[in-house]
Design brief:
530 residues, alpha/beta, Spore Coat Polysaccharide Biosynthesis Protein SpsA, Chain A, eight-stranded mixed sheet, two-stranded antiparallel sheet
Length: 530
Amino acid sequence: MLPPETEYEFDKDLTVRLGELTTPVRDGFAKWRLSQLLGLAMLSLAIGWLLAFVPNRFLQPDVMHISIVLGSLGVWRFGWWFTHAARAEVYQRMVWPEMRQRAQDLWLSGWRPGRLHIQMTTYYEEPAITKRVIGSILGQIRREGIPTTLYIGTGSSYDEMIIRSFVETHSTDIPDDLAELVFIRQNQPGKRMAIGLIVRAINRAGVDPNDLVIFMDGDALYGSDVLEKVLPMFGADPELQALTTDEEVICYGPQWIQSWLSMRFAQRRLAMQSHALAGKVLTLTGRMSVFRAQHMLSEKFIRTIEADHLDHWLWGRFRFLSGDDKSTWYHMLTRDAKMTYVPDATVYTIEVIKENGLGRMVQNFRRWSGNMLRNGSRAIALGPVKVNPFIWWCLVDQRIAMWTMLVSPTIAILASLIDPLYLWSCLIWVMASRILLCLFLYRYSRTVDLSWPFILYLNQIINASVKVFMIFHLSKQKWSNRGNQSSAADEGLMAKTQNAAAKFQLITTAVAFVTALAIYIGLLQMPILF
């Protein structure tokens, strides 16, 4: 817990940084500073000079077959990237404006949901963050006049005392029949159980199926008009069952982590708009998602959150620790439910990174990649008709991309043993291609950061490596944000046997992967078996 004086300074700094983020987003060259334009020009000229005057090793006869593979992979991956970019533009320019107009007209006509239920979990959050989050909710309830019940799942009295004190002080002008505060003290560990208890409480309250339910985290801060922008989407489209919003990050930690997270959210905006064009999304993000209340009445929906699990040939049956947002998303897929993404409603997530930045990056990738792999396989099994052909292929591509992303650097390193300058040519190409990709990402960023081309490649390599590790260790889960939760301990003969088998699979697969590439490029000879 922060001491009072530190909390006050934290809150002041948060006010400043939030103010910077809430300024209108500038488009095109307006978001560029002169120094950034000059920096990009110098970097592009340097790359252009290297491409023009450094001897091109790609077309050397002894490595031509390697270049063909790298070029084919590049065309495929960049073609897929540009497909997403084109779809995102179609959604933003042609589909979304009409959706927004219908929702806005409905809101201005006086439409409001019968009742709004907000499900939020918090676990020993920084007091300044908790107060900001609750304040943003109360402010919008007061302004919009929406009858709301705020259910807060807690693990102890610590967060309850902070929230109750803040609400009693800052909600005196809100009528009791407009806003109700309900604490749900969980009696079993884990965020999933906390959410399950809240959903059961919502169910017991006798909700109307057309009420709306917000799922959010305790560190998710509403933008100024989130409720006004997301709620009428359901009134304007009776078929819509769930949606998620835009996100932005305020990071207290190493500057490069702030840059990495900002880049990740720019990628998210591009991808989400591409996915939304299909009437589905790839995740109903736990930071902020909205559902029709009819799904809260489903025992299967509740149990999917509380006790979602996977049956694995090696690890047996194990329950999911994190990834409740992937579980709710999978449930909606099984119902063939329409989902969408609201690009102009922003929720600000506040990341406080006290540990090593690179370690936190890998931890996040382990959690995200594990959630994706555990849920992706069963979503793929639903088939393209049920899921939607484009979204289904996105899921398949996620599993292919983790290997293809590692093919290029592995081949480049191996090829350098044949021609030492080949690796240098590959590095030039990597930088040129990542600069080009980042030009698309800057389209979806609030500011321009010239470190992104370097961070993007680091992000891709580490993410792919973590995914390969996780696909053999699906039961291994750790979540430092919720009391440092982790999966079962690695003790006992069975657990040690399973871990040894997983490591054996990982090592033999990695060796086979590298060996096959080495044989292909001619570094090793194909063994004669007969």
